[in-house]
Model the fold of this input.
Amino acid sequence: MKKIVFLLSLFFLGCSSDDKYLINEGIVNIDYLFNSPNTEWFKNNYDSYDLDTKTLDYDFSNLDKFQIEIYMNTKCHDSEREVPRLIKILNRLNFSEDNLKIVLLNSKKQSSQGYENGKNITNTPTIIFLSESIEKNRIVEFPHENLEKDILNIINNKNYKHVYYSE
Done:
């Protein structure tokens, strides 16, 4: 009897410990991206991306003045491509995860918690750059040149417009 109780306890502990990796909507962290069964593609795409080291040699010190919000869908091929690249770049630049917010959205680009409300999310991924809680710019779905160059232009207040921008 004690063996059965022990085995059942182990089973339930094992099941509950992975719950944080099973969510489909809401705020997650980089650990989720690397370890969730919903993002099995992440590590391979992260590892296989070759950084634009020439661009990364430029001055990215302004990046520390920003908070970044990523709105993504785990089944979106653009999110699968761009989010691992972005995280690899941010890791290389030692960007603090404290200034990073990753939000999973469903196929309707919504979350049950409404994190996307007021953000005008039309495509995923949408990467929003904020300074003092005010949106300064965004990358929508894919970059103009590459993520490194687009980020450099955004953080240095160059005349950057995302690919779907229209006035």
